[in-house]
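Action item from last meeting closed. Structure (93 res):
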């Protein structure tokens, strides 16, 4: 086994979680800089950076649908004041 590609990033940003899609074509990571990053596993390239600055992001997983991701918040008081639910309602309903 040998290294085929390496990425240099910022020293203060670390990956928190990693998950692969059901079909194995995509990978999602969460990072300490409050972003989710979507990668194409076949091409080995990053597809998209998704910021989550308002609530942060901790763990992310793909749902059964191949184009949906669920992630947890890093903010402690979000559920207590129902802020997350109001924010989600405004986005989707």
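Sequence:
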């Amino acid at each position: 086994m040998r290294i085929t590609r390496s990425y240099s990033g910022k020293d203060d940003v670390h990956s928190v979680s990693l998950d692969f899609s059901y079909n194995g074509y995509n990978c999602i990571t969460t990072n300490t800089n409050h972003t989710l990053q979507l990668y194409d596993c076949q091409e080995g390239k990053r597809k998209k950076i998704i910021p989550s600055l308002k609530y942060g992001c901790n763990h992310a997983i793909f749902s059964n649908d191949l184009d949906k991701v669920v992630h947890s918040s890093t903010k402690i008081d979000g559920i207590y004041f129902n802020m997350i639910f109001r924010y989600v309602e405004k986005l989707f309903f």
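Note appended to the action item: The chain has one helix and six strands.
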